[in-house]
Amino acid sequence: MSKFAFRKHVTSLGNPGELQPLLFMLFLVIYLVTVTGNLLIIVLVVADQHLHSPMYFFLGNLSCLETCYSTTILPKMLTTLFTGDRTITVSCCLTQYFFFGCCIAIETFLLAAMSYDRYLAICRPLFYASIMNRKFCFQLMAGAWINGLIVNSIVVFLLAQLSFCGSNIIDHYICDLTPLEKLTCRDPTLFKLIVLLLSFIFTIPPFLLTFSSYICIIGSIITIQSTIGRQKAFSTCSSHLMVVCLFYGTLIIVYMFRDTPTMKHLSKIFSIFYTILTPLANPLIYTLRNKEVHKSLRQILMKCSRALRKYP
């Protein structure tokens, strides 16, 4: 088998002839805004020395990851909407899943690192500077990216060893693991067990670290006596908490409840939500709720404005 075809696509949400041009423009705008927003955050973090702190170092990495997310999924979706061709080669499908799966795995580790950073800042402020130094930040980031790449490389390698025969129709909008499993000729039980084991080893620990960090953070915030102090402490982690809830909330719906009758079709819609809309929402969440990012953005815009005035 050399090619797959998507049974589902965003055009199946209604009349393809009527919706295709509209959806193409919609997803093109989403892609451009997502890439622009995330690249803007990366530029701000690199250019502004006031943002050279662990929290913004992690935020810059998250923005880089979200850009990869969108670039993995949306260009193929836009091509399909523009040409109407729903086919994709097996190698391209596996490549798309490789990068898509890597992004998910890396983000679980990255969110855990960001949660630990906020935990130290709020619950252990006296030890924050000594623990969260530049070397440790780079080690956390390297660990997140390396672990994410390793775990999904193993999964894709094992998936590529399976034979695909019979139907070549992918019952999804994107190349995801579950619909690909259903197209294999061999019994995928062993493959599923290995994937489950890898998921448990590489996903549960960062999830537990993220969850326990926020339990401690919320507990510490509650014990703060002054209202202003509580508001200030909560404001430093509220944006990240929203991102964590958005990421894990959609993942749970898509992957844990996908086989229930009610969620079988809704999970596909939610998969679009967390692969396309979450990367769009994250820069908006951080920029709209972060005063330091606002200040840095204003300074950059003022510098650009002054530079343009010099060259009429």
UniProtKB/TrEMBL annotation:
<protein>
    <recommendedName>
        <fullName>Olfactory receptor</fullName>
    </recommendedName>
</protein>
<keyword id="KW-0716">Sensory transduction</keyword>
<dbReference type="GO" id="GO:0004930">
    <property type="term" value="F:G protein-coupled receptor activity"/>
</dbReference>
<comment type="similarity">
    <text>Belongs to the G-protein coupled receptor 1 family.</text>
</comment>
<feature type="transmembrane region" description="Helical">
    <location>
        <begin position="136"/>
        <end position="160"/>
    </location>
</feature>
<keyword id="KW-0807">Transducer</keyword>
<keyword id="KW-1133">Transmembrane helix</keyword>
<dbReference type="InterPro" id="IPR017452">
    <property type="entry name" value="GPCR_Rhodpsn_7TM"/>
</dbReference>
<dbReference type="Pfam" id="PF13853">
    <property type="entry name" value="7tm_4"/>
</dbReference>
<keyword id="KW-0552">Olfaction</keyword>
<dbReference type="InterPro" id="IPR000725">
    <property type="entry name" value="Olfact_rcpt"/>
</dbReference>
<dbReference type="GO" id="GO:0005886">
    <property type="term" value="C:plasma membrane"/>
</dbReference>
<feature type="transmembrane region" description="Helical">
    <location>
        <begin position="234"/>
        <end position="257"/>
    </location>
</feature>
<keyword id="KW-0325">Glycoprotein</keyword>
<keyword id="KW-0472">Membrane</keyword>
<dbReference type="GO" id="GO:0004984">
    <property type="term" value="F:olfactory receptor activity"/>
</dbReference>
<feature type="domain" description="G-protein coupled receptors family 1 profile">
    <location>
        <begin position="37"/>
        <end position="286"/>
    </location>
</feature>
<dbReference type="InterPro" id="IPR000276">
    <property type="entry name" value="GPCR_Rhodpsn"/>
</dbReference>
<keyword id="KW-0675">Receptor</keyword>
<dbReference type="InterPro" id="IPR050516">
    <property type="entry name" value="Olfactory_GPCR"/>
</dbReference>
<keyword id="KW-0812">Transmembrane</keyword>
<keyword id="KW-1003">Cell membrane</keyword>
<feature type="transmembrane region" description="Helical">
    <location>
        <begin position="193"/>
        <end position="222"/>
    </location>
</feature>
<feature type="transmembrane region" description="Helical">
    <location>
        <begin position="269"/>
        <end position="288"/>
    </location>
</feature>
<feature type="transmembrane region" description="Helical">
    <location>
        <begin position="21"/>
        <end position="47"/>
    </location>
</feature>
<keyword id="KW-0297">G-protein coupled receptor</keyword>
<feature type="transmembrane region" description="Helical">
    <location>
        <begin position="97"/>
        <end position="116"/>
    </location>
</feature>
